[in-house]
Amino acid sequence: MTDTPSGFSRRGFIASLAAAPALGATAAPALAQQTTASRAALAQAALKDAKGTKLVLLGTGAGPVPGRTRRMTSHAMVSNGAVYVLDCGLGLTDRFAEAGLSFNAVRAIYITHHHLDHNVEYGPFLAIGWVQGMPLSVRSYGPPPLKQMTEDYIRSMRTTFDFWAEDMKISPMQAIDVTEIAQAGPVMQDDNVKVSATVVQHPPVKPALGYRFDFHDRSIAFSGDTTPIEAVAQLAKGADVLVHEAMYLPALVDYLHAQIAKGRPVKFDDYMAHMNADHSPAEDVGRIAQEAGVKTLVLSHLTPAIDSISDDTWRAAAAKNFEGEIIVAHDFTVV
Predict the structure, then answer these.
(1) d(CA 96, CA 327)
(2) Cα gap 307→189, rounded to integer Å
(3) How many CB atoms lie within 10 A of CB 258?
(4) What is residue 330's three-state secondary structure?
(5) Cβ–Cβ < 8 Å for 138, 176
(6) What is the arithmetic mean of pLDDT over 235-260?
(7) Phi, psi of 136 (to 5 degrees)
(8) Which pLDDT belongs to residue 235?
(9) Is the pLDDT of residue 311 over 90?
């Protein structure tokens, strides 16, 4: 969980378009040359012409920090016209719409754990989604107390919901069907996908979850926020894609020293102890992916989420221990 250091440039992307192979003919040569609108247009084109299940990285930055190129963590999976959302960091609702995804196609929402950069837009996504045609049959899955959190949010917005329903003559917003997950095992299955979960290591958050989605044509695993642990390797065993959080320690150390010099009230040793106890260096992420035998490793939830770290730098760290394809995620990457 990191802030964006003022010592690094915010002026666009320096990195090359890591997702270019996934986007095929619709991809542009470099993200540095693309505006948010044009990157969104690339994602729209890739999804429109897509064959089979697609993963859209909507928010790829770590930490509850606004104003960055990379928004907070969120993903969407599209299969047979149905959309499954994983995590709801700030920026999800806009990114979802910008990518051309349909609110009325959303079947389910999954939360990995209760940190702000993963759940802060859960309620607003439900609310705006309802206005935009999200079916009231949508289901939510995640760690306790997700059911209570959902009920509390809907209750807090009841007056607003009722005014809108009366004014627009639409079905009122009702309670959402929530399934809480506290341990590893099967989560749900429908005609498109079978979902399972594992418990990961992200203290003091308990439980924090990783998920695996087995679609009819491909399997996609997500580490959630965690240290590099065997449970993720087992969850992702033989998967086509593993989306794993990643930390680049040299840049993180520089960032932290710069923040302390500017007066941020944090102790270096304490902060780094927290990061090492909760997150995964990119080199170790490569090791987990190699052990799992996945085809493609996607580095996301990047720490620090700054544009001055090139894709090649991220990729080289993970490639020390992983021999497969490595994609460095940017918002609107389609895999």
Answers:
(1) 21
(2) 38
(3) 14
(4) coil
(5) yes
(6) 94
(7) -70, -5
(8) 98
(9) yes
Statement: residue 84 has pLDDT above 90: yes
**175-214 tens-digit pLDDT:** 999 999 999 999 999 999 999 999 999 999 999 999 999 9
Q: Which of 268, 280, 180 has its CA nearest to residue 229?
A: 280
CATH code, residues 20-334: 3.60.15.10
Domain boundaries, the chain: 20-334
Dist CA 133 CA 127 (whole Å): 10
Mean pLDDT in the chain?
Answer: 89
Using the 8-state DSSP alphabet, how is residue 3 labeled?
A: P
* Distance (Å, whole) CA 294 – CA 220: 9
CA angle 295, 15, 299 (to 5 degrees): 35
Please report the pLDDT score of residue 266 as a whole number: 84
CA distance 113 to 62: 13
Bridge partners for 141 per DSSP? 110, 179
The encoded tokens of residue 34 equal: 């693309």
Q: Over range 288-293, report the average pLDDT.
A: 98
Rounded Cα gap, residues 217 and 269, in angstroms = 46
- State the sign of the Cα–Cα–Cα–Cα dihedral 333, 281, 326, 255: positive
In this model, does residue 139 exceed pLDDT 70?
yes
What is the amino acid identity at position 178? V
Pairing of the two strands 193-202 and 205-215: antiparallel
DSSP of 130-190: HHTT--TT-EEEESTTHHHHHHHHHHHTHHHHHHHHHHHT-PPP---EEEE--SSEEEEE-
Per-residue model confidence (pLDDT) at position 13 = 25
Question: Which residue do the tokens 């940190």 mark?
Answer: 115
